[in-house]
Amino acid sequence: MQSELIPRSLPPAERDSPPPTPVSSAEEAAVERRPFLPRVFSSNEAVAGGGGRRSPPESLAGTRSVETVGYRWITKFLALACYAMLLMPGFLQVGYYYFFSSQVRRSVVYGEQPRNRLDLYLPTDTSGRKPVVAFVTGGAWIIGYKAWGALLGKRLSERGIIVACIDYRNFPQGTISDMVKDASEGISFVCNNIASFGGDPNRIYLAGQSAGAHIAACTLLNQAIKECGERENTTWSVSQIKAYFGLSGGYNMLKLVDHFHGRGLYRSIFLSIMEGEEGLKKFSPEIVVQDLRVRHAASLLPQIILFHGTSDYSIPSDASKNFADALQSVGAQVTLVLYEGKTHTDIFLQDPLRGGRDELMEYIVAFIYAGDAISSAKDAVAPPARRLVPEFMLQLARRISPF
């Protein structure tokens, strides 16, 4: 946000006026607690009394804040609209596959809440038990939806891997503890029921992207802590997860709250999502894993692979670097994979839409099929994915992306 320019020359009336009253700490706190969209005063409210005396400066500042917030969100919305239009050829093809393919089982119920649904992407080859990826989609904890994983589901199912895209309550329907609870129930369903869909319950992998990577990491760590406790009732086990793939995730909310505020996810909203200041620590896997009281839970964690683009402006790649360091410090198995010059959406959207062999997909498939010579041989001769969006449109989308 650009700061306002202060004029050097002021009218005589303002030049002669007394200096502004210093702002107390209480007043600063009041400013911090202002609502996301400050109230816009009408002309009658802005003028106090019959003498035409103006209302307090806070009212005018609030009006300017509304104008600035409105401008920021209008530009972001326009950028998002243009971004979506440029990628629309790919979205339409993936959407057609999502709604009409017999290989997609939509909205399988896994719990009692309205959003407790998941989508299953099944390979055409039904011979033998297939490895499974349980995927938690992103969406800034506000607009997440299971269909956002359709492209990943399509690509991996074409390589003989079942994908279960888990939906969860978004804010304000739920807060972070609700999201983690939903994700845990979805993972439990996959662990206990995937065999009936042709999946191998002994080869289940957990993955998440962006906010979904954060939710999935919280869920995995919470489960490990539960299993270290006494008499905890659990419906699935960390030992059932072969590995965790974190794509462009954030794992320390205390460090990211100011970054998100500057990107438009305002502090007051984010604190509501994370259930207050204490929630920022409680739901920060990077902080939790280093807590001396729960460090022993790290020994239960599966292999963790973190992927991040170095040109990610939505969640800086340092988020994955620092989490990897924290995991290493407590003896967990972790691998950090950085993609030079990739943005927040490159490795998850633009690269798969480009077709051919993309780095992230190759890494995940090779990891899942490691030690499986037959599946690796089949995958080696599989035809590359076809392009869904022309290159010039992908390049333009990358330049105007609001993410």
Gist of the model:
The chain is of the alpha/beta class and 403 residues long. It is built from 17 helices and 10 strands. β3 (104-109) and β4 (117-121) form a beta hairpin.
Can you tell me about this structure?
The chain has 403 residues and is an alpha/beta fold. The protein has one domain (80-400): Rossmann fold. 45% of the residues lie in helices and 14% in strands. The chain is built from 17 helices and 10 strands. The chain has an 8-stranded mixed sheet, sandwiched between helices. The protein has a two-stranded antiparallel sheet with strand order 1-2. α6 links the parallel β5 and β6 (162-166). α4 runs antiparallel to α17 (391-400) and α7 (176-193) packs across α8 (211-228). The radius of gyration is 25 Å and the shape is globular. The two termini are 16 Å apart. The model is unreliable at 1-69 (pLDDT under 50). Residues 1-37 are annotated as: Disordered.
Oligomer: single chain
Corresponding CATH superfamily: Alpha/Beta hydrolase fold, catalytic domain
Q: Shape from CA axes?
A: globular
The low-confidence parts are 1-69
User: Helix- and strand-based class?
Assistant: alpha/beta
Pfam families: BD-FAE
Protein name: protein-S-isoprenylcysteine alpha-carbonyl methylesterase
Membrane topology: Multi-pass membrane protein
InterPro entries: AB_hydrolase_fold, BD-FAE-like_dom, Carboxylesterase_B_AS, GDXG_lipolytic_enzyme
Helix and strand topology:
Layout lengths: L11 H4 L9 H8 L10 H4 E2 L4 E2 L2 H30 L1 H13 L3 E6 L7 E5 L8 E7 L13 H9 L3 E5 L9 H18 L5 E11 L1 H18 L12 E7 L5 H11 L3 H7 L3 H6 L2 H4 L14 E7 L8 H12 L4 E6 L6 H9 L4 H10 L4 H8 L10 H10 L3
Parallel strand pairs: 5-6, 5-7, 7-8, 8-9, 9-10
Antiparallel strand pairs: 1-2, 3-4, 4-6
Helix pairs in contact: 4-17, 7-8
